[in-house]
What we know:
The protein is mostly beta strands and 957 residues long. The protein contains 13 helices and 49 strands.
Amino acid sequence: MGEMGKRKLDTGWFAARSTEVKLTGVELTTTHPPSSPDQPWMEAVVPGTVLATLVKNNLVPDPFYGLENESIIDIADSGREYYTFWFFTTFHCKLSGNQHVDLNFRAINYSAEVYLNGHKEVLPKGMFRRHSLDVTDIVHPDGENLLAVLVYPPDHPGRIPPEGGQGGDHEPMKIVDPHLVSSFFDNYKRVYLHATTGLVNKSARVAECSLNVQVTTEVKGGFCLVEHLRTEHVSVPPGASVQYTLPEHTSCIGSIRNTPVQHYLFLQLFFYKPHLWWPNGMGKQSLYNVEIGVEVKGFGESDMWNHHFGFRKIESEIDSVTGGRLFKVNGQPVFIRGGNWILSDGLLRLSKKRYQTDIKFHSDMNFNMIRCWGGGLAERPEFYHYCDIYGLLVWQEFWITGDCDGRGIPISNPDGPLDHELFLLCARDTVKLLRNHPSLALWVGGNEQVPPEDINTALKDELKLHPYFQISTQSGNSQEDIFPLLDDPSQYLDGTRIYIQGSMWDGFADGKGDFSDGPYEIQYPESFFKDDFYKYGFNPEVGSVGMPVAATIRATMPPEGLQIPLFKKLSNGYVEEVPNPMWEYHKYIAYSKPGLVHDQILLYGTPTDLDDFCLKAQLVNYVQYRALLEGWTSRMWSKYTGVLIWKNQNPWTGLRGQFYDHLHDQTAGFYGCRSAAEPIHVQLNLATYFVEVVNTTSDELSNVAIEVSVWDLEGKCPYYKVFENLSVPSKRTVPIFEMDYPKSKNQTPVYFLLLKLYNISDYGILSRNFYWFYLPGGDYKLLEPYRKKKVPLKITSQVFIRGSAYEIRMHVRNTSKKPDSENLLYKNRFIERDSDGDFDVASLEAVNSRIEEKKEGGLIRRIFSRFQHEANALRVAEVNGTEVGVAFFLHFSVHASKPDHKEGEDTRILPVHYSDNYFSLAPGEEMPINLSFEVPPGVTPRVTLHGWNYHTGHTIL
């Protein structure tokens, strides 16, 4: 008997334009297969678009670089035939006995002809659906198989509107689309796992099957604990496709060959006090592995399916206080702070590694929700897998938006999409693909639109909640009381999460569909705290600037794209930024809003070149996005229930609304968000000047203290206060005291403010927040001469290596002033968040990471059980300086040390995960900074430190 298994066909593909191939699909897969990437064949990118393959083979310029996209012919001008391509590969699949094999396609845009060993199959249309072909009788007995796929673009590819837009298995018995649902009772102490799965009998005989269900959970050391192991015996008629539901009595409805048959087999899986799945910042993302296997009498194991599953219940309603959409997870309200997601990559070069980086970045920013915007697509399962792992709730939108479905400007089809039946088929298939992910929080019909009436009615009906998910788990009702009266919840298409018809309806924006999201431009930081900034309880889109670092501009644009904007003084006193054409093409958002907001970059002085401009832009990015989130959090539950920023990332080299660029380098706005979205956070209300403490956790904060210190440009501390014995209730933002320094007589024109929130019991720092301010009517121009201030630093570091993975642990100290043991300021004990399911190298557990207090600059080695070796002994790097002051806006970067380095070459190693970056240190203060990254083979990494007053750069490692 052959081996049961699955093989992913994502390598070894060739591609060719259909008009250049003079052979038929039958000939390609029988007598004349291509054997090498010789003209017209080329190496193909799978998964990916035709354009991605053309870019890889240098047949078109990189559309993400400069204005090169303009030189690529659009399908509206070339015609569909120009972008109709053959894809070809070979694979080995040798069957024995009565094994079966399916050829599965995750998605094809838009339709295709499939040829396998001379046999032809035509796939139906639609990019948002899966396809499965039974090729048991087609695969070659010797195991060598030839596969060719002719991919056609959409029938009506359309044209970009003038105003633009953003936009193999072996088995006789097959398991199809299992659905897992959990129901809770007794305040989440008891849980039942419900499951419905499809079974397809491909044989001509009745299949006597053993259906095995195993639930395991991972324990320490990589070992798994079996929580449940159950086996049920079922019979499936020949050629039948049946649905089995697992909970106590058995019934059968029909048994017609090749016709769907419903069988209900009840098998209760009961758990007591299970580990729950929580969103990021609320607890751990506990995941169980559910494995369903089927064995056929006389054949053996036929198919196996497994999926990570999280026990959690998501509820949603319109909040009576704010009018905003309120989400609860496991009975606890979640204050939503997240952003909008477009695509991982505009050319669909999708990879597990990129998904992991993307989602971990969102977790690192302390976000708890990602909105998959309607102008994009349903991502691959790996995207949702990492959302499960890192605790990112997913708002999943279907593909309705005025940007790209015919209802834009001008309107081409007000009833779009063109094929309603196909749309619903794709929607149902997407639901089945994604519904078992605990991170998936809601379905939404469209972006700033609702689907046409017939589609919307169908989605409302098919995605209606099961009655259990409309009742409280706090009641004393038992499972035995409720479920005999209800259908099993796993029999629903979904039934566990809400469907909302559009992104501005039913608790989002004004709730009525009016265009009440936004704004999307630069703001004064204090504006976010004012009552009139945004009227409604939940804003699904609010956006601002997103300029990346100078190295990214150089890497993605030719010399003519390196020109910084012109600052044009207007008659009303405001400044208009005039960007170069390439920046404008890449959707640059200015740092000024003439008539409403004065230019925020010019506050720091007129930029002299690209590096100066981008550095000052990072200062503004940090302030802008920290203020945005702090302003929303300041009104948590009293005015707002959540906010999603437009947007977190770009699927290409865009210059607007992003926290990291397409090359995976973070902007300073990333770290402004990271600070503001901490689960426990101390902040300054920029409208009232009250210091506030935010507690989004389920526990009350007690016996905590706030330390406030002000630092001037001379390194002096003219204002220092400590407020002790404070308590902050759970899920509350509490104003503690008014910051009165700006009203004092001895204030300086530019000053720094440091806030720290401590546990009094052990001086553990719960939150740290650093601001820079100018007095009303002033600016930051005094910071320009401050760049020449030489403030000494001492950096202690140690490196750990596992294969190509590096982790660097550093402690950075501003040594310009000797620590005063009587001040809290120098109690540098930072509390690290507990592990919350982060499996990345960036957060591997350490045996000990505390500072050795008896040794100056000492660092007890952090020992990682998963690391192969420690690269070297403890290293100490010192940046010389003789002046006392704040080490301002420090940031690290990692580069490849290359002896043959060319002038202007981008040597950055990306991505890098930093525990913090773009940070500042008061005199005598110390902070731990962790870095993790992977390096290419044969490359030695070099870590460099820059800062406002360290602009020349210093090599640390």
